[in-house]
Write a structure and sequence with these properties.
Number of strands: 6
Strand content: under 5%
Number of helices: 25
Helix content: 55-70%
Shape: globular
Distance between the termini: 94 Å
Length: 542
């Protein structure tokens, strides 16, 4: 039957993906289908082990990407905390009311059980949010960064719950884990030496499952907390992003097992589906609460709305919390199924909302702008550009090199745009005129001041999607000057030229040509040097 499990899971995932929804909904459906065929979770012990690995690697990956500084911003830590409290205060009375009205799934629950359900329903989906942001190319946008920060805070709340729910008193040896930061130089040295292939993947698995989960479990702490902590410990290493990418498909594959186990718990009844649908009607309240909180922290109404739509759903972490609560006997088992259905239905609502977010903002802009508090957030104000002739989007090595070449002839007439604050500060210290902004973000173009004498825009961003998006936005602003772009692949060059870019330079071809030019110059210089020596020798002999 094992091949059938894989086939059914793949088929359900592909069918759901075709209609523009996250495949995880398909995996939940696959679990229900397998249950119809008589397959139960207890008959597949390996599946449960893989599901646990998926959750552990998910938390390790979150730790690897965690920027502690981003969590210290008020709109992130306070926004997520206040939303959690507000959600629980709203949902507990609502669930109690529904129970009093006769919904059997809620009528027998105590206040603490209702609070636990409200806690599980307060989370938003990390998987859904990241997929939407990646598809839009908005991962580095302000609203994207705020959304990811809030999601990480929610994940931390969930991990704290998972740790507390373990219930056991940790060993006295748990205090020794405070020495982990002192092992950081040794761990980083090993990280440096594992290379970039399969050793890197093995290193990541050892750090997540042995040093993280295994070590923490050994001293009586929750293994998932260990994976998160060790991930945070590695986050400062230059190869942390590469490690996260290397483990990505392992994590995704193991999480498939988690969603399958949810479906294998049983089929929803009609009353379960009805209750899940009622819970989805609460999602707009979640969105409105996020909107008011984020505008309170002085973000623009557009930024707040985009973030709120991105977070307007239920979460896979809610399922993880529910799974722990059910295993402890704190909640009836049927709630795992109800929450799974509510999660799936919330995605059905969230997908079109995120697609139509810009149109909805334009339609309701006058009313939404009344929510704004001034002065606006420093990162959400108009971007002053002055009156440059040359604009460089992306101030990495290529962009800064182009800036310096132009500066030799047109000093004072160039402006660089860069989304990383540390790079902006570096370039300014080097005497370059650079402002912070992300050209792959719609917000950037909404906030950009007009530059009437702009003649050339150089697209030097590392991602083709971002460069292509910038071209579309420049067209929308009726830019009439020249466009040049850097690409890595020939098919990207074709697409950019078709979109209206005047000149395209292939990074690798240009590098190869530059390398050959350098070699030829070295050879010619060497020959000239030998010729000079020969002339000197002949002169000395004469």
């Amino acid at each position: 039957m094992e091949p059938a499990i894989l086939i059914i899971t793949l088929a359900c995932g592909m069918l759901v993906s075709r209609i523009g929804l996250p495949p995880l909904i398909g995996y939940l459906v696959a679990g229900f289908v397998l249950f119809l065929f008589g397959i139960k979770e207890e008959s597949l012990p390996l599946l449960e082990q893989l599901a646990n690995l998926g959750v552990t690697l998910l938390l390790f990956a979150i730790g690897l990407k965690l920027d502690i500084k981003s969590l210290l911003k008020a709109e992130v830590w306070a926004g997520s905390s206040l939303h959690l409290i507000g959600s629980i205060l709203f949902l507990v009375p609502l669930l109690k009311l529904l129970g009093l009205l006769g919904l059997e799934q809620l009528s027998g629950l105590e206040w603490d059980q209702l609070a636990l359900l409200a806690f599980a329903l307060s989370f938003s989906s990390t998987i859904f949010a990241v997929k939407v942001l990646e598809d839009k190319g908005d991962m580095q946008s302000l609203y994207g960064r705020v959304a990811i920060g809030i999601l990480i805070m929610q994940d931390i709340f969930a991990v704290l719950f998972l740790t507390i729910s373990k219930g056991d008193i940790p060993s006295i040896w748990a205090l020794s884990l405070l020495l982990l930061p002192f092992a950081k130089p040794l761990i980083y040295k090993a990280f440096d030496r594992v290379g970039h292939g399969e050793l890197l993947v093995l290193f990541g698995l050892v750090m997540a499952l042995v040093v993280g989960a295994g070590l923490f479990e050994l001293v009586g702490l929750k293994p998932d907390l260990g994976a998160l902590i060790v991930g945070i410990l590695l986050a400062g290493h230059p190869k942390s992003s590469e490690l996260a990418k290397s483990l990505f498909y392992f994590k995704e594959l193991f999480l498939v097992a988690f969603f399958l186990t949810v479906g294998l718990n049983g089929l929803p009844s009609f009353s379960d589906i009805g209750l899940a649908a009622l819970l989805v009607l609460v999602v707009p309240i979640k969105i409105v609460l996020f909107l008011y909180l984020l505008t309170y922290f002085k973000l623009r109404s557009r930024t707040s709305l985009m973030t709120s739509f991105n977070l307007g759903n239920y979460s896979e972490f809610g399922l993880i919390v529910a799974a722990v609560a059910i295993s402890k006997g704190w909640l009836p088992a049927q709630w795992m199924i109800i929450l799974a259905v509510a999660l799936s239905l919330s995605f059905l609502l969230a997908a079109p909302l995120n697609t139509a977010a810009n149109r909805l903002y334009q339609r309701f802009q006058p009313g939404l702008r009344k929510l704004e508090r001034h002065p606006l957030h420093p990162e959400d104000r108009q971007i002053p550009v002055g009156n440059p002739r040359f604009l460089i989007l992306g101030m990495g090595r290529i962009g800064s090199g182009a800036y310096d070449e132009l500066a030799n002839k047109f000093s004072g007439e160039i402006l660089g745009i860069e989304h990383k604050q540390e790079l902006v500060d570096f370039h300014r210290s080097e005497g370059r005129t650079v402002v912070k902004g992300d050209a792959s973000d719609t917000d950037f173009w909404e906030k950009l001041d007009h530059a009437p004498n702009l003649e050339l825009v150089l697209l030097a961003m590392p991602h083709h999607v971002g460069n292509l998006f910038a071209v579309e936005q420049l067209k929308r602003l009726n830019y009439q000057g020249k466009l040049s772009a850097i690409v890595q692949y020939s098919e990207d060059a074709v697409q950019l030229k078709e979109s209206g870019v005047h000149s395209v330079f292939n990074l690798y071809e240009a590098a190869g040509a530059g390398f050959v030019d350098h070699v030829i110059q070295e050879l010619e210089s060497g020959r000239q040097h030998e010729a000079d020596i020969n002339i000197d020798e002949q002169t000395n002999l004469s």
